[in-house]
Amino acid sequence: MAWVDAHCHIWALARGDYAWLDPTDPAFAPIAQDFGADALGQRLQAAGISRAIVVQAAPTEAETLWLLEQARNAPHIAAIVGWADMTDPGFAARVEKLSAAPALRGIRPMLQDLSPDWILHAPIPGWADALIDAGLCFDALVRPAHLAVLARVLARNPDLPVVIDHAAKPALSAPDGDPRHQIWRDGMARLSSETQALCKISGLLTEMAPAELPRARDLLFPLLDQLLGWFGAERLMWGSDWPVLRLAGTYTDWHRLSAEWLAGQSDPVQEQISGLTAARFYTLPEDAT
Question: Which of 32, 68, 71, 230 could form a disulfide with 192 if both were Cys (CB 3.0 to 4.6 A apart)?
Fold first, then answer.
């Protein structure tokens, strides 16, 4: 299988626009440092992966331009998902200009940090058409509380290519009775049946409580089975969420755990989720390796 890491990041803290990443907070110690294209390449090579999609980690166009510059000298960065201000009246012109960069494949607002109804009212009218016209995809970084609104947005914009990041961050550390579990199940089932949205199998280890990590297999495999039943292999793609992944485990740990689950699936399912879905969604050129 030719794996594609459909979701990872690089950053340089001195750039100064990663407000969420507080280097003085001990909880962020494993990731409060620079992670560049070379470091990403080393992780990919160790896992036998040749290509990755690098996703924005700061809500600034400056970071998007920086990511595009990094990609020019890093052949393992197959595409960039950037950021642009969806509330700016000039949004359409901005994404048209940004899309001239060959590596740019999508835009991602950081919806998880915004109210669930933000996307209904704050962006300019026609934002989805602007992305479609520019040939760009939309990465939906959401939590369970955003799913009902996301379904409404996608019903209005059925031609917008959308992928749900991190499987909408199910509340894996919450007790069984937490209402977010049912909200997540209802929302993801609805999105899978009523829209053409895709879903990333990524960012799940960091949603677990540390005490649960030793039993990640028992917790995650049924969830992955559920996602496969809802979306099918052609709408699922694998990603690492490195280096955020370091808050919960190593690149090798997550890759091996994912490969173990995939080994129980048919060859066509394995091929789609490990790489083909991401390559098709982000319109990557044929892998030469």
Answer: 230
